Here is the input.
Amino acid sequence: MHEYSIIQSLVESVAAAVANREATVHRVDVAIGELAGVDCGLLATAFEVFRDGTLCEHAALTIDRIPARWECPRCGGDVACGGFLRCTLCDAPARLAAGDEIVLQRIELEVA
Amino acid sequence: MCQKDSEVNVVDVQTRILARNDNTAAHNREHFLERDIFALNVMGSPGSGKTAVLEATARAFGDSRKLAALAGDLATDNDAARLRRAGLRARAIETGQACHLDAEMVHHELHHFDLAGVDYFFIENVGNLVCPAVYDLGQSANVVVLSVTEGEDKPLKYPTMFARADLVLLTKTDLLPHLPLVNVPAILDALARVMPDPRLIPISPLGGEGIIDWLDWLRMRRNAMLTTSEVFA
Here is the structure.
């Protein structure tokens, strides 16, 4: 259940982005990769629990789930998920091009 | 009467949520690298044999003063005590209810370690195939300990953990004669579907199988680290 500690870090990241402005945060957008090791349902639940009493108290959380994408580091070609993670042309081990994100993308806030 | 207008802004942030952990991990990594210490994050299920591997490593290594370890568990310092008895410098991290170690916990413990003469620093993570994969601790390599009794499809069930592994140690191989249904090639097949450059060493801490290969891998990776850090020095 590391999703709770991720939400704690998320609230800290939002506070850093808001800086010292007097503001109400309306929306928090995050991107979570398929291979980030984060369960989006648990993350949403953890946000509901932890936002009380923080500057995210009135904010909605939107989660953009990023699919895993593997590619060949030599030719740049896609390597399909589910099969062996090697390029069929170059025989090079694939590299994860997307899908490990745990990112605060943007916040929508109302500045007084 | 004036009414102050409020303004709705969208702030594009694009920052890693675990940036603070990553910064501390980078600090830990620097700490290890400037002392020529090869640090490993050793992960695996509870009971997979992580501590037994480290005990066998100390027995086979020769000069166990070059080995140090942190053992993470929710409670007790039993594993650290076992490692100290095997000859390693070892301390426990009791996480309470936390299911993983983070970089700050490791950083805190590093202040209590005499690292003089240490070449290898093993961070034995909390037994768990999910959460530990998410947190960078400042290690140079990830090792996943998987025992033969856990099922061939474990890598497919926990892809994040195995996708980040540099090496998988398949433990308890001395049990294989009693487990006719366990198919080692099937484990390799599952690994190759989630781990881009699958490396697996079958190892039996009790019987001794694979320990030499594991020590060779450790020395090779540490030498590669030293060569790389010389290039960038």
Summary: The longest strand of chain B covers residues 7-16.
